[in-house]
Amino acid sequence: MVLSSGRYRFLAGAWLAILGSVACTERVPTTPSQTTTGSPTPTSPSPTATCAYEIFPTSRIHGPATETGTVTVTAPSGCAWTATSGVSWVAITSGGSGTGSGTVAYAVQANSGEGRTGALTVAGRTFTVDQAVPACRLADIADVSKFSIASGTDGTVRVSGQHVELRATMGQRYAGIVSPCALQGDFDVQVDYALTNWPGGGNYSVGLGTSPRLGGIVRTGFGSYQMYVGPSTLIAQITTNDTRGMLRLVRTSTSIAGYYSSGSDWRKLGETSSGNEPLRFFLELSSPNPSTAPAELIITFDNFRVNSGTPAN
């Protein structure tokens, strides 16, 4: 088909108009609309610092004597804390409360018994205190299973629990045991005994004494109780026919006294000056002249007890 020149011009003009309209259209990017009313969303503040506590050290071991110690607290400024003791034998002496970092001081009482463990609460933390046993304890002195064989023993020593058996045959002079440690100051000790095989006559004895030998009480082969001081000084002597009973030594201040009992009452044999030095204790079977002793002597001890006294550490 042939277009006339006039129709051609009309079509060309229409297309140019359409293209011009497309070319002149702008694409404007859209943006989120801004809120124009109300306050802007606030920014979250940084969190407030918390109170965190640390202590150093967290435990300590103390000896048996009276001792002191300190615990260091580390904490942010302004953070409060307290310190308390959970046992009666540990006391807070300073620093029972504080703010920020600080120091707690405490004191441990002397220990005369078993080993023990306690705790302090310091700034919410646990501080553990362990205290050792003393070098010498009442329980050790009263426990004959911990006694040692005495020097010079040539007889037989048998210990079973708290029962002691001492034997001596012809020609044997001595059998004995000695406490592992000593008592100082005033004391009161006693023991039960029995003459298990004790033929009459002969120069021999069974006794409770102190070491160094400052005092003792014995039951002799001649049927008498004797109180002595030093190696041979006789203080008192009472003759009896008892084959069993109790022996007792008591020191008050600087004097030591000896007692015996074959029943319910104690009988005082004598008293002498002993000084105040620490003393150990021994149980013995002895004979100055074993050639005159019977073929076999057997004596037993039971219930050795420390009624009062202070261990010598």
Task: Describe the fold and architecture.
The chain has two domains: 54-131, Immunoglobulins (Immunoglobulin-like, Sandwich); 138-311, Jelly Rolls. The termini are far apart. With 313 residues, it is mainly beta. It is 8% helix and 50% strand. A hairpin with a 2-residue loop joins strand 8 and strand 9 (125-131).
Number of helices: 2
Radius of gyration: 47 Å
Strand order of the largest sheet: 10-13-22-15-16-17-18
Outline: elongated
Report the count of strand segments: 23
Helix/strand order, N-terminal first: HEEEEEEEEEHEEEEEEEEEEEEEE
The tally of structural domains comes to 2
| CATH fold category name of the largest domain | Jelly Rolls
End-to-end distance: 137 Å
Low-confidence stretches: 1-37, 43-47
Helix coverage percent of residues? under 10%
Q: Look at the helices and sheets and give the structural class.
A: mainly beta
What is the CATH class designation of the largest domain?
Mainly Beta
Note the main sheet: 7 strands, antiparallel
Strand portion: over 45%
Q: Which CATH architecture of the largest domain is right?
A: Sandwich
Mean pLDDT: 81
Topology, pairings included?
Blueprint: H1 5-23, E1 54-56, E2 59-62, E3 67-74, E4 80-85, E5 90-94, E6 97-99, E7 102-108, E8 116-122, E9 125-131, H2 138-142, E10 148-149, E11 156-160, E12 163-169, E13 174-178, E14 183-197, E15 205-211, E16 216-220, E17 224-229, E18 233-239, E19 244-252, E20 255-261, E21 267-273, E22 280-286, E23 296-311
Parallel strand pairs: 2-9
Antiparallel strand pairs: 1-3, 3-7, 4-6, 4-8, 5-7, 8-9, 10-13, 11-12, 12-23, 13-22, 14-19, 14-23, 15-16, 15-22, 16-17, 17-18, 19-20, 20-21
